[in-house]
Amino acid sequence: MKRVLFVCVENSNRSQMAEAFAHIHGGDGVEALSAGSKPSGQINPKAVRFMSELGYDLSTHASKSLDEIDGEFDAVITMGCGDNCPWVPARFREDWGLPDPKHMDDDGYRAVRDEISSRVKSLLAQL
């Protein structure tokens, strides 16, 4: 089983959607987690709404801190938070540099969501 961690600052949008897509695309072969360097404590309602369009219930997720995550990972993906994301041990690391969609209109939010889905598929194919 591959372990993958998705990290952003608030752990309420991008990293949550990435975790969801890893579950969707990776199934039982992937342990996917997400966390934030300064978690908001809640999942953005827009993320819940736009993932529900794809049949995924993001309301079952929780916004959590990197302090709650331990162990090593096959991959750690940051979402473009730069220095705000501390080092987490991993064999593969990458920063996707995705814009935070929380203030985007619906089309913009869907575009970021769909880009995350595509990148997660590519990542899982590499592992």
Short description:
The protein has 127 residues and is α/β, with parallel strands linked by helices.
Give the biggest beta sheet.
4 strands, parallel
Shape: globular
Could you state the order of secondary-structure elements as H and E?
A: EHEHEEH
Structural class: alpha/beta
Ends apart, CA distance between termini: 10 Å
Domain Phosphotyrosine protein phosphatase I: 2-126
Protein name: Protein-tyrosine-phosphatase
Keywords: Arsenical resistance
Organism: Lysobacter niastensis
SSE blueprint:
Layout: E1 2-8, H1 14-26, E2 30-36, H2 45-52, E3 73-78, E4 90-95, H3 106-126
Parallel strand pairs: 1-2, 1-3, 3-4
Structure description:
The protein has 127 residues and is of the alpha/beta class. The protein is built from three helices and four strands. It has helices at 14-26, 45-52, 106-126; strands spanning 2-8, 30-36, 73-78, 90-95. Strand 1 (2-8), helix 1 and strand 2 form a beta-alpha-beta unit. The longest helix is centred in the last third of the chain and has 21 residues, at 106-126.
